[in-house]
Amino acid sequence: MKRIFFCLISLLSLSTSIQAQNSAKGVPPVIAEKDLTAYLFVYFIGNKVEEEAVNYAVSSDGYHYYALNNNKPILDSKAISSTGGVRDPHILRGDDGKTFYMVLTDMTSSKGWDSNRAMVLLKSTDLVNWKSSIVNIQTTFPGNENLKRVWAPQTIYDAKAGKYMIYFSMQHAGGPDKIYYAYANKDFTALESEPKLLFVPKSGNACIDGDIIEKDGEYHLFYKTETNTPGIKVAVTKDLTSGKWIENDNYLQQTKDGVEGSSVFKLNNSDEYILMYDVYTKGRYQFTKTKDLESFSVIDNDISMDFNPRHGTILPITRSELKRITDKWGTPAKLPKVNHNPVLEGYYADPEILYSNKTKKYYIYPTSDGFDGWSGYYFKTFSSDNLVDWKDEGIILDLKKDVPWGNRNAWAPCIVEKKIKGKYKYFYYFTAAQKVGVAVSDNPTGPFKDSGKAIVATRPEGIHDGQEIDPDVFTDPKTGKSYLYWGNMYMGVAELNPDMVSLKPGTQKVIAVNPSFREGTYVIYRNGKYYFFWSEDDTRSPKYKVRYGISNSPTGPLEIPENNIVIQGKPEEGIYATGHNSVLQIPNKDEWYITYHRFSYPTGIKMGDAGGFHREVCIDKLEFNADGTIKQVVPTHAGIEALKK
């Protein structure tokens, strides 16, 4: 957290639909685009009844796909449909970032192409367990007695209406296929009202397989026109239900073979899109790439799949979502190894890491980042039993609700576990309104109760600059005494009283460092020596880094090695601003890890000053030389391997 905390810096445009979902200024997105690191391909495989089902495949790069579950269905078609088969799966991430919606054609081709009147609606919060409903248009809405078929439903969130729109093609006897729409009810189990016309070409020709994607405030509807020369076209509008579409007369497919089932998705952390479609006459897919959604180039030579899909869609997913589905259906042997940094999804910074003897788990206590000008107001914690897979345990302290003396700027916490009268207690020190407070709990995940006042509220005597921020708590294994460190532009220290919520009078002092000290003190003990870590420069600087000194005492003085960089950025890997660390020792082992934050990858370095409050948390190994000095850590995207249980 930084010296000029009050500066208001405009959030740079991240040009993603997920970012755009946030209506409140300065509030982090529900899913940050930088956390979308993989892809889920949802498809069916053929015209046999057993092939008309939902299948999954995954990719780490958007180009190479591997089937899950040995290319067998992940859902039982007979259990979710009225016909015994489903086709044309479309999947959508909801506006909340964590709910998923899937819609399917309820039909089997064995009964004929004009045999279906229904669609299947599914909803999930984990991509594994789905709740399903059947919507039969003919029996639900009067006036559809001559309805022949309902094909290829898809879903999009209509921000103007605040609802999920389901759109699909229908054909009534004697007329062409047209694309209709209706809004889903709140539970996504039915349609709110009878379908209305969404789109039909000016020519009046039939159209099917609509696929809508939003870009720069415009909705692009890709569809298949069923003329004497069928193919894929696009129409554009700024208002989904206005009926005002600008049609592009050009065919978009890059083949003369018959095609259907087009689908567009945006490549993760890129300004490029992929338009793919089912070349059904040849039993293959074609992939094309574009930036403007108007001109497309074939990239088939870049694509590989170990399965043959039919009409499906691709959804960008996070690492944790990928893990969830591969835990369920197995990890393909050829799927590239997934990076473990950052360890937390979302924007977080200033990580404090703890091993709890009570729960035998590890915990990270970060600053909630992504708020304009470091204006976050709540703290969360995350738990893990292997340092790789982290569970969000939710908010443990909300300044606006829980801390009346400091309701803003929730920064840089730290925590200590103490056994008092045979019971574990957790003392959580935090920054609020540029003061240091303390809250107490019986559990590492809270709830935490604020002590009622700041424990550090003013600068030490003789200090005329800086802020009272960035607490660190350390218990000396030699004496059992606990110390609180804090400060920006100076390193303050004082002994804590046995109650752990007040400072022992007369023990406060300022430890001399050198001009490299900015903030973020952290202290550990190893082989009779006390190691002091701190951050140099400003968190908005790509050169933000960690240095260290060594002492024979928890209160100094410090001996500063000549080469004392602990970790710094690696620009050639796109890693910048590695700082504000904590350190973990694996219990009863001389095994150490450093937890730190960096600019979010790959977007942070492009944000200017805003990169300094769009940060992410990483873990790498910390090692020592034979003489006790610290080996400089090389920051990685790979991170560490999961600890064995």
Please characterize this protein's 3D structure:
InterPro entries: Glyco_hydro_43 (IPR006710), Glyco_hydro_beta-prop_sf (IPR023296), Glycosyl_Hydrlase_43_Enz (IPR052176). This is Glycoside hydrolase. Keywords: Carbohydrate metabolism, Glycosidase, Hydrolase, Polysaccharide degradation, Signal, Xylan degradation. Belongs to the glycosyl hydrolase 43 family. It comes from Flavobacterium ginsengisoli. It is built from 5 helices and 40 strands. The chain has 645 residues and is mainly beta. It has 2 domains: 297 residues, Glycosyl hydrolase domain, family 43 (Tachylectin-2, Chain A); 275 residues, 5 Propeller (Tachylectin-2, Chain A), CATH 2.115.10.20. A 5-stranded mixed sheet has the order 20-3-2-1-21. Strands 4-5-6-7 form a 4-stranded antiparallel sheet. A 4-stranded antiparallel sheet has the order 8-9-10-11, with no helix packed on it. A hairpin with a 2-residue loop joins strand 27 and strand 28. The longest helix is centred in the middle third of the chain and has 11 residues. It is elongated. The two termini are 35 Å apart.
